[in-house]
């Protein structure tokens, strides 16, 4: 079953975090935006799985968001997102419907990552792409969250993954042509400006992978 309760109960607290940690949020947003293709027609038809309150979908121009939390969906709708109730393992869409899909810190809350990746592959158009943003479990923040997860309202339910594990899952599904960047260097309390992202992984706690169908 998807983890819904803490996001329903603490929806306002969840959403407020982005205002209280503005530079972390903007650093992650910049890294995600790097992989969103745009041309004279715009960014194409995008969908975010685990859209939450729409904090990422809205500024990235993603029009559709899926989430199992009705309360989160209400807030996302207020931000202009077309909200659809659903889970990653059973997406309520036709095949080959989207140009790109975003999963932003979603895989750690998904019951079956393999099924989720299979579903993303199904709904993506040929040459469409998936963007996965996540906390590397071997990074500074990954180790910190693992150590303190039982005390967290949200991360106590999370399962963290390494970069190699995510790549392996994507490759098994059929994705290819992986590109990767990282940001959020050091502890969160030291971030007082938007951090630049750089290629690869191993230094930054937040990793973004783009994978092509």
Produce the secondary structure layout.
Elements: H1 5-9, H2 11-20, H3 22-34, E1 46-49, H4 57-60, E2 64-67, H5 70-78, E3 82-85, E4 98-104, H6 113-123, E5 124-135, H7 140-148, H8 163-173, E6 176-183, E7 198-199, E8 206-212
Organism: Candidatus Methanogaster sp
Keywords: Methyltransferase, Transferase
Protein name: SAM-dependent methyltransferase
Give a quick summary of the entry:
With 213 residues, this protein is an alpha/beta fold. It has a single domain (5-212), classed as Rossmann fold, CATH 3.40.50.
Descriptive overview:
An 8-stranded mixed sheet has the order 3-2-1-4-5-8-6-7, with helices on both faces. It has helices at 5-9, 11-20, 22-34, 57-60, 70-78, 113-123, 140-148, 163-173, and strands at residues 46-49, 64-67, 82-85, 98-104, 124-135, 176-183, 198-199, 206-212. It is of the alpha/beta class and 213 residues long.
